[in-house]
Amino acid sequence: MNRLITVLLIVATTTILARGAFAQTRDVQKAPNLSKLQIQPLNVKPGLWETTTTYKRSGAPPISPEALAMLTPAQRARLEERMNANSGGSTNTATDQHCVTKEDVEKADFGQGKGECTYSIETSTSTQGKGSYSCDVEGMKVNGDLEITAPDPEHIKGSSHGSLNGGGRTMNVESTFTSKFLSASCGSAK
After folding, report:
1. 3-class secondary-structure state, position 190
2. How far is Cα 121 from Cα 167, in angstroms, rounded to an integer?
3. How many CB atoms lie within 10 A of CB 60?
4. What is the value of pTM for the model shown?
């Protein structure tokens, strides 16, 4: 179950990465398989950034047979009911502010180092990053792609698409985002 959480965090990290377009935590559980293309940091300013992200989700989250086996019949019935009720999908938009350090910019990793996945970096320049990932954890498959563009040092935009498959269920997750630089000082923002 911990690996499933890691995979779900990979999807979330892709969205977080899209939100900030910079390296986040680097909790490496296993050395990931990487493409041979070196990652070039985006040419963006460190400081306070504001990001608006729209998330679209459809389908039911996959659950491994092992996780389902740990539930009582009543728990499983409630879970199935909730998942079926929410499988139609949803769209949410969130805006937040976050601090990006010089180190974040220099050590951008495009989501690599997050769990047991294979990463393929297709493009990595000072103005664009594009790649995909594939994971196989606890009998579930996670596949996705991410594209980030920094047309100038104060603006970033991008998108990510992913799918989680397992236990006869598929959940698709999409996000689009725009980020803008606000100031060189982060104040109390993290």
Report:
1. coil
2. 29
3. 21
4. 0.69
DSSP code per residue over 65-77: HHHHHTS-HHHHH
Report how far residue 86's alpha carbon sits from residue 173's, in angstroms, rounded to the nearest whole number: 13
Over residues 165-178, mean pLDDT: 89
Alpha-carbon span 77 to 60, nearest angstrom: 14
**Total residues belonging to the chain:** 190
CA distance 3 to 1: 5
Instruction: Give tens-digit pLDDT for 51-108.
Output: 999 999 988 778 777 777 888 999 888 887 877 776 777 899 999 999 999 888 887 6
- The answer to whether residues 187 and 48 touch, using CB atoms and an 8 Å cutoff, is yes
Residue spans of alpha helices (H) in the chain = 2-20, 65-69, 73-86, 102-106
d(CA 102, CA 45): 8
* Cα distance from N-terminal residue to C-terminal residue, the chain: 30
Is the dihedral angle over the CA atoms 160, 28, 40, 33 positive or is it negative?
negative
| DSSP character at residue 33 | B
The answer to whether 11 and 165 have CB atoms below 8 angstroms apart is no
Residue 41 and residue 23: Cα distance in Å, rounded? Answer: 10
